[in-house]
Structure formats: C-alpha cells, structure tokens
Amino acid sequence: MRGAARLYRLLPNARSLRKRDGAAAPARRDTDRYPDQVPRRDRPSRAALAAWEGLLRTHLTLTRTLDRELVARHALPLDWYDVLVQLHDAGGETTMGDLATRLLISPSTCTRVVARMADAGLVDRRVDAEDARVRHAAITPEGKASLRSAAVTHLAGVQRYFGRFLPDEDATVLSGRFDAMLESDADD
After folding, report:
1. Domain limits for position 162
2. What is the CATH number of the domain that holds 140?
C-alpha cells in the first residue's frame, strides 16, 4: 500500500488550477490528468480512479482514527492490536515468519513490533526447540486481557466509521471484489 500511496501523491490534482506567469491555467481535460507515458488502455476510468483515491483516503483516515481510539482508551496501538488478533486466530502462538505474513508486513518490522510488545508483557518470544533459526511469538495472559478489552473499542469503531455505511449486501459485493483483486494479483 505504501508504494500505491506514493504513486497517488505523484498524480496531479485535477481540481486545482496551476498558475503560470501569474495567470490561472485553463482547466484540465480528463486526458491531461494522466502522464503522456501511460497508454490509454492502461488508464483507469474516471470512476475507477475516484474509487481508488477514495479507498486510499478512507483507509488512511480510518486507521488513524481507530489507532487514536485504541491508544487513548487502552494504550494499545492498532498495529499491536492486530498482532494480538493474529496470534489469537493462530491459536495463541505462531512462528515469526507466519505472523509477518498474517500481518502483511516484513519479517524485520514484525520482529521490532513483537520485541516492543514483549517488553510490555503482551507477548512472549522463544526459540523453536527443534530449529534454533525459527522464532515463535505467543500471546500472554496480559495480551489476552488487552485483546478482550480493546476488541470492544475496535469493533465499535469499525462499525461506527465503516460498517454502518454498508448494508450487508453491499459489504458482501465489496468483499468479493477485494477477493477478486487479491486473486488477480496472485496470478500476475
């Protein structure tokens, strides 16, 4: 997503007028929005681009809001909450490699996050008994208690800022579209 966000920032803002020599430039045509190097067949439609931009803005805004709520009420950042959820869903313990994959982050980032959480007593880290190269992370009783408490806040926030805007039928369609996009990415 970070690469996509960088790409998004490179797109010119079609709603603004650029000033040249002190005078306002004429409003751009839709075709001016895209760099000349992008073949027309590879350009998203106006609706698809608006949806993409909306997805990026919404994701950023909602994750920041949900993070602020978790930190304010539970002293638990959203990325720590996600680690606890993934460990819970994995049965309480998993390898660091599996955890990084579940979290959609790099192994080194996962190691840093888990180290901070271990210092806070929310997770334990240990070396695999059979293969010393493999590290495990496990949720602690304190981590389970934090997860239970924070889940109430987080799920209420997801409903308040996201779920209430989507009837179940629309949510099902949207989820299906996301799945199709992910499957398409795996095919490329």
Report:
1. 67-188
2. 1.10.10.10
